[in-house]
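Good morning N.,

You mentioned wanting to compare the apo and holo forms, so I went ahead and generated the holo version with magnesium ion. This is what I fed in:
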Amino acid sequence: MQEQKVVTLETFSPEETLALGEKLGREAKPGEVYTLVGDLGVGKTVLTQGIAQGLGIEEPICSPTFTIVQIYEEGRMPFYHFDVYRIGDVEEMDEIGYEDYFYGDGLTMIEWANLIEEILPRHRREITIEKDLEKGFDYRKITILQR
Ligand code: ADP
Ligand code: MG
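and this is what came out, ligand included:
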């Protein structure tokens, strides 16, 4: 039997999302894999920035759109930030040597992870960010599913 746990959180400002990310980053353990899904402009980069800060990374996070993976070594563990949006084929992940990251000693974060579903580790934390305009322009629902 597979054990899954879902936590749903709400934020009402970018600062709150940043703070939530920071908390996740402080609690992260080496070897964990987080996936991040949500529409453009929903706050994925804001949350990722918070996670980086929680790991003790001070430099700003930018979306690694053209490099697929961006590596930050200055925190309390390595931070591997993937954005697989532009990937053509999962084989490109082999060329990067993704297993060294996914099964390494850092925290892996994968944006657009649904595009590489077949190589995702079975145990991972899936984070989804959604808007709900009825609850305000800055409202975000953040769902965390532990697989
Ligand atoms: P993505 O990386 O998902 O495309 P960004 O993180 O770059 O999105 O941008 C999110 C935008 O939404 C920022 O301009 C941010 O200020 C704004 N925003 C408003 N409310 C929130 C919130 N509650 N959480 C995160 N971002 C928010
Ligand atoms: Mg972004």
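The longest strand covers residues 5-11.

Happy to go through it together on a call whenever suits you.

Best,
F.
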